[in-house]
Amino acid sequence: MKSSILVVDDDPSILDLVEARLKKREHAVTTESTVDAALECLRRQDFDLVITDLQIGTDSGLAISEWVSTNRPGTPVIVITAFGSMETAVGAIRAGADDFVTKPVDLELLDHIVERAIQRRRLTAEVERLRATVARAGMPAGIIGKSSAMKKLADLIDRIGDSDASVLITGQSGTGKELVARALHDRSTRKDGAFVPVNCAALPENLLESELFGHVKGAFTDARTAKDGLFRRAGGGTLFLDEIAETAPEMQVKLLRALQERKVRPVGGTEEIAFDTRIVAATNRDIESDVEEGRFREDLYYRINVVRLRVPPLRARGNDVLLLAQHFIDRIAARSGKNVRGIAAPAAQMLVNYDWPGNVRELENTIERGMALARFEEITADDLPEKIRDHQSTHVVVAGANPDELLPLEEVEQRYIMRVLAAVDGNKTEAARILDVDRRTLYRKLERYERYERQESND
After folding, report:
1. Where does 4-130 sit in CATH, by number?
2. The architecture CATH gives domain 403-458
3. 432, 455, 456: which is closest to 445 by C-alpha?
4. Per-residue DSSP letter, 267
5. pLDDT (tens digit, 9 = 90+) per residue, 314-350?
6. In 3D, which of 152, 153, 147 has the Cα closest to residue 134?
7. Which architecture characterizes domain 148-312 according to CATH?
8. CA–CA separation, 296 and 246 (whole Å)
């Protein structure tokens, strides 16, 4: 992509050399031979990159670096100097330069430095554009993203904010389901009440019952005093039942009765107590399959699934990866005091290309690791885990230029179905939704593929 570059040098031979090299790379080049002329040019026009000599006549090219750093903070500056000492380099960087090259200019090295600087500029501009888009979109607090999937999710959150209907949030592990639940609470008419989360998978059944419904004094050995349960403590607010599909069958019966009657009976008690709480549940399981196979009660499923919010996997959110990465960098830098401002362009491309099986949680872990290892003001490719550096995206190839390479329609369908299943971690319900077929049709196709594979292995 063509970039606009300003080159400043009082040596005509160097000016011509650098200009010719950059134009060969199809960049739009403007040249100036004095500091005053360069500054006037910068006031009139915004450049993608500035290349300046360190010494321009009797003036210092660092004045240009300082001006750009103050007035065009997103524009990179490369300094050319005949003095390749560490002191010179430190002075240039302190003045706002991003990099420097020494005379005589190595044109191949210059190409590399220019390309790296322009990529960094574009990455910075893209992150700022994403931030502005999110700000204009008015995303709920805690929800970061501008992808169509996240805009759709934010719109649903706004639309059901004034309702007390129960909500089921589904999505893979690490996608941020609790953040979505909090955002829903904050946009609701219950925002002044408490938001009370509980992980249903983290507590044994007897403790979960006591935690949710409360208990009376003497209900069990350690029950020295009566205790209100979370249904009551979330009164006027929202109770978030995370990993609800992990609850035992007996607990599901008690939850169903509580939601039907809008009353709870404390453990060891004889009276039921009314509660005024909105119920938001979440699961990373294929809960429809659990219902069909008898692992989750159908009547409870319909009680909690009045409104469904699906949180997309990170791999389906495009450049939200960069926006989230920058958010984590800013937050960790503020906490740790480490001077890391962003991500180098090659590393950013690796983040976008990676599939993120661990979703946002894995991205946050990756950025925290990168911040710990970073030696410069940007996270580089070397600071990323090896599995991300070496990752190769998988694609479904359905055709080629050679007719002999073309595939039968059924094989194309099979490849695509298997690709979709891999993308949703084997969740057949989610795959059926994406493929726009009912689950029984999908099951029949998968069974047929398995029969073919068994036949081929026996032949």
Report:
1. 3.40.50.2300
2. Orthogonal Bundle (1.10)
3. 432
4. B
5. 988 888 999 899 899 988 998 888 888 888 888 888 9
6. 147
7. 3-Layer(aba) Sandwich (3.40)
8. 9
